[in-house]
Design brief:
about 80% helix; Arc Repressor Mutant, subunit A; Tetracycline Repressor, domain 2; 2 domains
């Protein structure tokens, strides 16, 4: 990778981090490109060198957050890493706290892009949809694998790790939808652990 490519990637990352923080503070539609560039320390005009529009940021953040989670989940299944369940619950709560609002926004953006006339945006969003769907499928498999290790290690007593993975992920998402930011992440993790521990 050339120095120019590294710098471009770094600037995209700074803009995405600024946007992610703003999207946690305010609803998507109330955050402007001006807000994002000001938080990142860039001029508004430079934003469009790195992103097609604000909507692309939603997909970028969602994909990056999912891939980061997947890397962390993969380390949970390393041999000798026990117990697994507390770390698994903490990772899922953290992920959903950071992304649950973006999942709904992305769904809405995909629907409106397919109905709109902006061919470039629609094509861009469809490619992100495929990437994000793949990353979320990997997440589901990694959660299932981690719960299988929990079952083998006696941390939980479940009959089906696949079904338990779906329930655990849904419970973490529900806690984030229903309680954050008023519910502390450690309280949400404690609630999840109380349901799944023997």
């Amino acid at each position: 990778m050339t120095r120019t490519e590294k710098e471009r990637q770094f600037r995209r990352k700074l803009l995405a981090e600024a946007a992610a923080a703003l999207f946690l503070e305010s609803p998507y539609h109330s955050v402007t490109v001006d807000d994002i560039t000001a938080r990142a320390g860039f001029s508004k005009g430079s934003f469009y060198k790195y992103f097609y529009n604000k909507d692309e940021l939603v997909f970028t953040i969602l994909y990056d957050e999912t891939e980061t989670l997947n890397m962390k989940l993969a380390t949970l299944t390393d041999p000798g890493r026990r117990p697994v369940l507390p770390g698994l619950c903490a990772l899922l709560v953290e992920f959903h706290h950071r992304t649950v609002h973006l999942l709904f926004t992305a769904g809405h953006l995909l629907k409106t892009a397919s109905e709109g006339e902006d061919f470039i945006a629609a094509r861009l969003f469809r490619s992100f949809e495929e990437k994000i769907t793949g990353a979320l499928a990997r997440k589901s498999e990694l959660v299932k694998d981690a719960l299988a290790i929990c079952l083998e290690g006696g941390e939980v007593s479940l009959c089906d790790p696949g079904a338990a993975a779906l329930l655990l992920d849904s419970a973490a998402k529900g806690l984030c939808l229903g309680g954050f930011p008023s519910t502390a992440p450690e309280d949400a993790v404690a609630m999840l652990l109380s349901f799944y521990r023997k």
